[in-house]
Amino acid sequence: MSPEEALNIAEDRELDLVEVAPNANPPVCKIMDYGKYRYEQSKRAKTAKKHQKSVKVKEIRMRPKIAEHDYQFNKRHIERFIQNGDKVKVMVTFWGREITHIDIGREILQRMISDLSEITEVEQLPKMEGRSMVVILIPK
Asked: What CATH number does the domain located at 3-49 have?
């Protein structure tokens, strides 16, 4: 029907003419209560958001001179974070002249990647961000 007819019908029923599919040829419109329609849309959006699982990014910081016990401790923390379904950002921070030994930081991160390769995947390979080398691990 023509838009004028639809508008007249909507006014007679004290409802609104709402364009549902603007990209269709011809555009599809419905006669409905627009306030009620918006309310239902917001309710649907809220329930969808409630059932959505948010992924958190946990952060583990290390230094190039990390001791073996501290490395294993951090590794266990990363395993726990991964099992909870979180992403993990592992950082090796360089202080002072340590920045000249970037290869040590890269070795630590590569070791962490290989140690956790059974339960994680690498989302971002080791790269420098300022005075830190960063790798991002995600659950498999």
From this structure: 3.10.20.80
